[in-house]
Specification:
FAD, elongated, ATP-binding, nucleotide-binding, six-stranded parallel sheet, 10 helices, alpha/beta
Amino acid sequence: MVWITSALDSVLSPTTIALGNFDGVHRGHQRVIAPILNGPAIDPSDSAAEPGSMPVSTVVSFSPHPKAFFSGRSHPLLTPMDEKAQVLDRLGIEQFVILPFGRSLANLTPEDFTVEILIRGLQARAIAVGADFHFGRGRSGTADRLREIAAEFGVPVKIVSLMSDQEGRISSSRIRAALGDGDVHRAQALLGRPYAIAGRVEAGQQLGRQLGFPTANLTIPPEKLLPRLGVYAVRVTLADGSLRPGVTNIGRRPTVGEQAAVTVEVHLLDWSGDLYGQWVTIELIDFLRPEQRFASLTDLKTQIEQDRQQARDRLTAATLS
């Protein structure tokens, strides 16, 4: 299980570091992370590791996101910290260090950040960053400058080229745009996995049960970025690890009195049971339709049945493809 810490005095060291925000941990981020997982990408003979010591593969990120800190506004995340830790754990990362991003850290020069945080605090033996990485006061530090500073301490820096597809650079902003359009296929291609939403099941208004389609209402971390409002075919992972097909509505339920807050509800196909209090994860497999207002609950019920059948068809097609 990945070790998570925000305090330098509890870091497992020495370390090999992948450094960045990594929101989404998308395919481009995974390329930056790969060198600290695959030994030959950073030659251990070039590092400052002591004989017999085994550096801990470590991803270093920041909270809050620097964009949120500098703008003073919330910055919805593709992967809130708990979710990011789970993804990193699946990749094989041993340690996740979350540096509290505040004025003191933001004011460090590139030299001070490298020496005080990376070299002394984290005892870095090798570092990997993306080619577009900037750090330090006023984002004045570049990947090349990091390499120069770290070289003075015998620490190699792997500068990883950016990953692109036929439409351009793979980035968190492109994933956000895809999700805003409800284009979960494009988001999945950029992420390298389906976009997931995780939360704990809480009691709701039980309207779905009254209509004959019981739903589980999820409490989602407030910083989690939600996709276009509408109905999705989803794959659901329950607390026991089992996978179930389902259909999810993300929206304000305009037919029954539009709410200010967006809700996430999931209906499991061909399943019955009590999910209250359980932590579940839904993966968006296909976008079925945008949210809409219906003239009556009867019309809504008819549409939900159509959504269920369409979700079955899309999920079956996704499994076979």
